[in-house]
Design goal:
- By secondary structure, the protein is α/β, with parallel strands linked by helices.
- It has a single domain, classed as Spore Coat Polysaccharide Biosynthesis Protein SpsA, Chain A, CATH 3.90.550.
- Helices cover 34% and strands 24% of the residues.
- It is built from eleven helices and 13 strands.
- The strands form three sheets. The protein has a five-stranded mixed beta barrel.
- β2 and β3 form a beta hairpin.
- The radius of gyration is 20 Å and the shape is globular.
- It binds uridine 5'-triphosphate (UTP).
- Uridine 5'-triphosphate binds next to α5.
Length: 297
């Protein structure tokens, strides 16, 4: 079986209502973590994992995203003339070769499963990755890279998984674990957004997947699941009984839910502190700020 993963789908057609009013005119994926839009972190991670074809599932109002990956000749020219080589290099890092990115539209936000289904013709008949750009993962080796390596052993479908507190399981797809082998777990069931009392475990699925095309056959049926949406979780669960089955992968790294305000703020602090050029000043500011607050209380 072909286990080379060269295509990735980035579903970015959601409405991002948790960030209104900002998302009234700015796509959530363009919102900036330190100095790079969220989507850039996901693209960098995919490139690092060997992805060569990038498929965006977009919707109305996301043209800023398409512009972001386009060439910017005037800007480059101006930076060149001013000798701003550092900035020019930064800009060049966002370049995507012609033909590497494809866009498909999801006409209606019918759910994550439906968004992935919209990319079916571009995915065709090979394994593919899915990255949700609102999940930003800080790791020494990128999360998708770790998964691509583990996938060479397992095949089938693989989802990134992490333990979450019991009172949070109802926000995630949750794994029913068959066999726990440490970083890899084999899966015998998956439930989308279960009540805490009904969750089969506290091992939650986060926004990185490697899927086989069988998932698309399930999505063809357009079955509506939890929350009235066409759920990717249900499509992946349909592959549990196939030969290679479904595996969860406990990645090494820290995941930030940048689809939520708290997660975005936490990521801003973590990524700001980790930067060589900003970290020291930012740390001093935060320490002083918190001390002043404490003294005033
Ligand atoms: P979310 O559940 O975070 O939804 O989607 P959202 O619309 O982006 O944000 P809120 O909840 O309204 O604030 C998770 C991912 O799935 C994509 C989103 O763009 C995001 O990357 N998605 C979701 C789609 O592409 N289409 C859909 O129909 C639903």
């Amino acid at each position: 079986m072909n286990r080379k993963v060269t295509k990735a789908v980035f579903p970015v057609a959601g409405m991002g209502t948790r960030f209104l009013p900002a998302t009234k005119s700015i796509p959530k994926e363009i919102m900036t973590l330190v100095d790079r839009p969220l989507i850039q972190y996901a693209i960098d991670e995919a490139r690092d994992a060997g992805i060569e074809e990038f498929i965006f599932v977009t919707s109305r109002g996301k043209s800023a995203l398409e512009d972001y990956f386009d060439a910017a000749p005037q800007l480059e020219d101006s930076l060149q003339k001013k000798g701003k080589t550092d900035l020019l290099a930064e800009l060049k890092r966002t370049d995507m070769p012609s033909g590497a990115i494809a866009y498909v539209r999801q006409r209606e936000a019918l759910g994550l499963g439906h968004a992935v289904w919209c990319a079916r013709r571009l995915i065709a008949d090979e394994p593919f990755a899915v990255l949700l750009p609102d999940d930003v993962i800080a790791a020494d080796k990128s999360c998708l890279h770790q998964m691509v390596e583990a996938y060479q052993e397992t095949g089938g479908c693989m989802v990134a998984a992490m333990e979450v507190p019991n009172d949070k399981v109802s926000s995630y797809g949750v794994l029913d674990v068959n066999q726990d082998l440490g970083s890899i777990v084999s899966v015998k069931g998956m439930v989308e957004k279960p009540k805490a009392s009904e969750a089969p475990s506290n091992l939650a699925v986060i926004g990185r997947y490697i899927l086989n095309p069988g998932v698309l056959d399930y999505l063809d049926q357009m079955q509506v699941g939890a929350g009235g949406e066409i759920q990717l979780t249900d499509a992946i669960a349909s592959q549990i009984k196939t030969e290679d089955g479904v595996h969860g992968y406990r990645f090494r790294g820290q995941r930030f839910d940048c689809g939520s305000k708290t997660g975005f703020l936490q990521a801003t602090v973590a990524f700001g502190l980790a930067r060589d050029d900003l970290g020291d000043d930012f740390r001093t500011f935060l320490t002083d700020f918190l001390e002043l607050r404490r003294a005033a209380e």
